[in-house]
Amino acid sequence: MSATGGTHWKVRTALLLTAGAVAAGLAGCEYADDVGTVPAAAGPSARTPAASAPLPTRDPELVAAETRNLLTLDAVLGGLPEGLLFGGSGGIGDTSSGGFSVSGEISRAGRYKISAACIGAPDAHLSVIQGAREGGTLLERNLDCGSVTGALLVLEPGDVSAHLVRYGGGVPGPATGAVAGIRISFDGPGR
After folding, report:
1. DSSP 132
2. What pLDDT is recorded for position 109?
């Protein structure tokens, strides 16, 4: 053993260095106090570029046009039909080939009424698809926006989806506030 403490000195030095390293590592950490608040960290390293970037906003005129068009769409489609299975409405005008779709599951075979309309664009294209069927697509129809287009389809149990797509390149162009709505309701036993 040496006069400076030998092995005990080396162990104490190792423990002291380890404690110092842990303390240095924890100095940059933030801890919540009893009430769950996190103290503000000091220095510029606490800021991230994403935190200072503003969130994108939609054009207020576009939002207003879409809101007006949704109100008109609800009036055109009328009240909720008896036997409504699923449906919805939304924008179709934010991109050059904007579209809206709904999907759901048919639990019993039968005749179903499809109602669709669009507002704020000259026309749109409706597709109804049921994947369990050969070919999948059951209905393809062009719509003149402003009036309801309806169809009766015999559907089998399984998933079904309906899509309304605004034709691209037409007037008015994208970002017009154009909207579409689709409703699928049970109409009775099929065949």
Report:
1. T
2. 92
